[in-house]
Design goal:
This protein has eleven helices and 15 strands. By secondary structure, it is of the alpha/beta class. The chain has two domains: 198 residues, Quinone Oxidoreductase, Chain A, domain 1, CATH 3.90.180.10; 117 residues, NAD(P)-binding Rossmann-like Domain (Rossmann fold, 3-Layer(aba) Sandwich), CATH 3.40.50. Strands 3, 4, 5, 6, 7, 14 and 15 form a seven-stranded mixed β-sheet that branches. Strands 10-9-8-11-12-13 form a six-stranded parallel β-sheet. Helix 6 links the parallel strand 8 and strand 9. Helix 5 crosses helix 6. The radius of gyration is 20 Å and the shape is globular. It starts with a helix and ends with a strand. The N terminus is likely disordered. It binds NADPH dihydro-nicotinamide-adenine-dinucleotide phosphate (NDP). NADPH dihydro-nicotinamide-adenine-dinucleotide phosphate binds next to helix 3, helix 5, helix 6 and strand 9. The site of NADPH dihydro-nicotinamide-adenine-dinucleotide phosphate has 28 residues, from helix 3, helix 5, helix 6 and strand 9.
Length: 369
C-alpha cells in the first residue's frame, strides 16, 4: 500500500469508541475567554495573509516528511500526502512547530522495528499548533485552540504512524493540553516528550521536597527540563548534574547547585550520594554507585543494573497540563538549542545535528506553515 493510501486510511477509524478513563481535564491555567480572543485574532490575521489557512479551510493534501525504509537521515523525503482524517476521539492540528527527540532518530534507524507502526512513517512526537477540526466525541478542545502534545501515547509500542513533521497531524484528545500562553509555538513544541519523561521519572521514584537529586546528562532535552522540574516543581534541595565545561553556566542558570565535568571527573568516584539518581545517558552501572542506601535510580536508556530501573514515557495531556502553572510563571522554561531551530525544509539537517548527541536543550522545527 502506498503512502497516500495509508495516510488516507486514518480516516476509517472515525467510529472508534472513547478510550476508557478519558476524564474531564482540570487545567489550572485554562482561561477560555482569553484564549478564545487570542485565537480569533490570529485567525483573522491569517485570513488577511492569503497564503495562510484559517480554521475553516483544511486542504485535502499537505506536505509531510516521510520515510518508506529504515536508514540514515537521507531516507527522509518531503512529500505531498493526504491530510489525515480524525477519529472520533481525535483533533486535527495545523502544525506550527515540531521538535525532534533521539527516539525519532533511533526509530528511523529501525532500532524499534519489532514494535514500530508500519512503514511508511511521518516521524515526530512533539507538536504545537492550532486545532482545525475535532472528532465527534471530542469535548475539551475546539477549533482555534492553541495546543501542544506528544502525539504518541506509547513511544515505542506502535507509535503514531503519521506524526508531527507535517503541516497537519491528528492527535488523540487525551494527549493534548492547551499551549501555555506565555510560550511561542516553537517553545511549546520543544516540551512534551522530554518534560513528560522527566515528570514521569520523578513521579515513579516519588521525588519528595528536600531530597537530593543527581541528573546524569543535564544539558540534553530531558536533562535541562529535569533540572528545572526537580527544583521548581518537586522542591529538591540539591540538584547536581554532569555536563561538559562549555555548558556549566547554562546549567547553573537552570538552577543546578553543582556541575561535574564528566570529561574530567568520574562522578561515581566522588564521595557524594543522592536520594534520587536520574540517568539520561545510559550509564546505569555507574549511576547505582552514587545513590544513597534506600534511594532510587531511574534510567532512560541502556543496560539496567539493580537497584536501577528503566521505563518508557507515556504521553498524557492531563500530566502536561499539570505543568502549565510553572510554564506560565516562567519558573520552568523551554530551552531551544542555540543552533537548533531548523526550518521545515531543513529536517534532514536537523536530524543530522540531533544525532551528533551534542544538542543543548531541544532541536525544534519552526515555523511550519
Ligand atoms: P539529547 O540528545 O538532548 O542529549 C544530548 C546531551 O547529552 C548533550 O547536551 C550532551 O552534552 C549530553 N551528553 C552526552 N553524553 C554525555 C555524557 N557521557 N555525560 C553527560 N552528558 C552527556 O537527548 P535527550 O535528553 O532527549 O535523551 C537522552 C536519552 O534518553 C536518549 O538516549 C533518549 O533516547 C532517551 N530517552 C528515553 C526516554 C524513555 O522514555 N525511556 C524518553 C526520552 C529520552 P555534552 O555536549 O556536554 O556532551
Amino acid at each position: 500500500m502506498d503512502l497516500a493510501t495509508r495516510a488516507a486510511g486514518i480516516g476509517l477509524r472515525s467510529s472508534s469508541p472513547l478510550p476508557q478513563g478519558l476524564r474531564k481535564l482540570n487545567y489550572c491555567c485554562q482561561k477560555p475567554a482569553l484564549s478564545c480572543r487570542v485565537v480569533r485574532a490570529e485567525v483573522a490575521t491569517e485570513k488577511a495573509g492569503a497564503a495562510k489557512i484559517s480554521a475553516m479551510e483544511v486542504p485535502t493534501t499537505h506536505k509531510a516528511w516521510t520515510y518508506a525504509e529504515y536508514g540514515p537521515p537521507g531516507v527522509l523525503k518531503l512529500e505531498q500526502i493526504p491530510v489525515p482524517d480524525v477519529a472520533a476521539d481525535e483533533v486535527l492540528v495545523k502544525v506550527h512547530a515540531a521538535a525532534l527527540n533521539p527516539v525519532d532518530g533511533k526509530r528511523r534507524q529501525g532500532k524499534f522495528k519489532n514494535t514500530d507502526s508500519p512503514l511508511p512513517t511521518v516521524p515526530g512526537y512533539d507538536v504545537a499548533g492550532v486545532v482545525v477540526k475535532v472528532g465527534k466525541e471530542v469535548s475539551k478542545f475546539k477549533e482555534g485552540d492553541e495546543v501542544y502534545a506528544d502525539v504518541s501515547e506509547a513511544a515505542l509500542n506502535k507509535p503514531r504512524q503519521f506524526g508531527s513533521l507535517a503541516q497537519y497531524t491528528a492527535v488523540q484528545e487525551k494527549l493534548l493540553a492547551l499551549k501555555p500562553t506565555r510560550l511561542s509555538f516553537a517553545e511549546a513544541a520543544s516540551l512534551p516528550l522530554a518534560i513528560l519523561t522527566a515528570q514521569e521519572a520523578f513521579d515513579r521514584v516519588n521525588l519528595k521536597v528536600g531530597q537530593s537529586v543527581f541528573i546524569n546528562g543535564g544539558a540534553g532535552g530531558v536533562g535541562t527540563l529535569a533540572i528545572q522540574l526537580a527544583k521548581q516543581v518537586y522542591g529538591a534541595s540539591l540538584v547536581v548534574t554532569t555536563g561538559s565545561a562549555g555548558k556549566v553556566d547554562l546549567l547553573k542558570s537552570l538552577g543546578v547547585d553543582k556541575v561535574i565535568d564528566y570529561k574530567k571527573e568520574k562522578y561515581e568516584e566522588l564521595p557524594d550520594k543522592y536520594d534520587v539518581v536520574f540517568d539520561t545517558v545510559g550509564e546505569c552501572n555507574r549511576c547505582v554507585k552514587v545513590v544513597k542506601e534506600g534511594g532510587a535510580v531511574v534510567t532512560l536508556t541502556g543496560a539496567v543494573e539493580p537497584p536501577g530501573f528503566r521505563f518508557v514515557v507515556t504521553s498524557n495531556g492531563e500530566n502536561l497540563a499539570k505543568l502549565t502553572p510553572f510554564l506560565e510563571s516562567g519558573k520552568v522554561k523551554a530551552l531551544i538549542d542555540p543552533k537548533g531551530s531548523f526550518t521545515f525544509s531543513e529536517v534532514v539537517e536537523a536530524f543530522e545535528y540531533l544525532e551528533t548527541g551534542r544538542p543543548t536543550g531541544k532541536v525544534v522545527i519552526a515555523p511550519i506553515e
